[in-house]
Design a protein that fits this description.
Chain lengths: 118, 109
C-alpha cells in the first residue's frame, strides 16, 4: 500500500524557536497533502490543505503566518511551526491523497510528529 | 452544522464480535471512511463506503445507509491487537473530511 513518512517523529524545542516537519509520499504522487493536529483524546483537526505548486488553504482559526506550509514537489510538503509556544505542543499528522487512486480518493496518513515545546 | 456521532468507548471480549456505530449529518455526502488509530500513532485506513450496503474485508466489515445517515464497522473474531480507537469520517459536498471523535475499543481476554 501507499506509504507516507514524516520526519522527525518526535521533537522537543524551546519556546520561541521554529520547528520544521517534513511529510513525504514514498511510492506515489500526492498533488494534495493535508496537515492535521490532534490533542490528547480529541479528534483530528484539519489545519490546512496543501496543493503542490500553490499556496496552502488554511482552516478557520489557523494562523498562516505561524504555521508555514510549503508543498514544493509532488512528494514533499513541509510544515514549519514558527515561534513555537507550549500551547503548540501536540501531535501533528500529515496525510497525502493518491492522485491516481480514482473514486476512493483515500488519504494515507503519515506516522505523526509529536511536538513538545518547553 | 456538520456532525459525526460515535460512542466514546466500547468494551468487548477476545474472540467475540463488536459493532461500532456512526451517525452523521453533513452538507452533502461523498463517501464515508473508517480508520483505526492505536494510541500515539497516526490513523490507518480500514474501509470506504459510498454506496449503500455492506463491504467486507477479512475480519472487518463496514455498512452504509445514506438515507439514514448511518454506518457501522463490524469487527469479528476480536483479537487483543484490535484494541484501538476507531474513527468515522465523512467526505462532504466540498470533498472535505469531517471527523468523528472516535470510539475507543477495549478488548478483554
Amino acid at each position: 500500500g501507499a506509504v507516507v513518512s514524516q520526519h522527525p517523529s518526535r521533537v522537543i524545542c524551546k519556546s520561541g524557536t521554529s520547528v520544521k516537519i517534513e511529510c513525504r509520499s514514498l511510492d506515489f504522487q500526492a498533488t494534495t497533502m493535508f496537515w492535521y493536529r490532534q490533542f490528547p483524546k480529541q479528534s483530528l483537526m484539519l489545519m490546512a490543505t496543501s496543493n503542490e505548486g500553490s499556496k496552502a488553504t488554511y482552516e478557520q482559526g489557523v494562523e498562516k503566518d505561524k504555521f508555514l506550509i510549503n508543498h514544493a514537489s509532488l512528494t514533499l510538503s513541509t510544515l514549519t511551526v514558527t515561534s513555537a509556544h507550549p500551547e503548540d505542543s501536540s501531535f501533528y499528522i500529515c496525510s497525502a491523497r493518491d492522485a491516481d487512486a480514482g473514486e476512493t480518493d483515500t488519504q494515507y496518513f503519515g506516522p505523526g510528529t509529536r511536538l513538545t515545546v518547553l | 452544522g456538520q456532525n459525526i456521532d460515535q460512542p466514546t468507548e466500547m468494551t468487548a471480549t477476545e474472540g467475540a464480535i463488536v459493532q461500532i456505530n456512526c451517525t452523521y449529518q453533513t452538507s452533502g455526502f461523498n463517501g464515508l471512511f473508517w480508520y483505526q488509530q492505536h494510541a500515539g500513532e497516526a490513523p490507518t485506513f480500514l474501509s470506504y463506503n459510498v454506496l449503500d450496503g455492506l463491504e467486507e474485508k477479512g475480519r472487518f466489515s463496514s455498512f452504509l445507509s445514506r438515507s439514514k445517515g448511518y454506518s457501522y464497522l463490524l469487527l469479528k473474531e476480536l483479537q487483543m491487537k484490535d484494541s484501538a480507537s476507531y474513527l468515522c469520517a465523512v467526505k462532504d459536498s466540498n470533498y472535505q473530511l469531517i471527523w468523528g471523535a472516535g470510539t475507543k475499543l477495549i478488548i478483554k481476554p
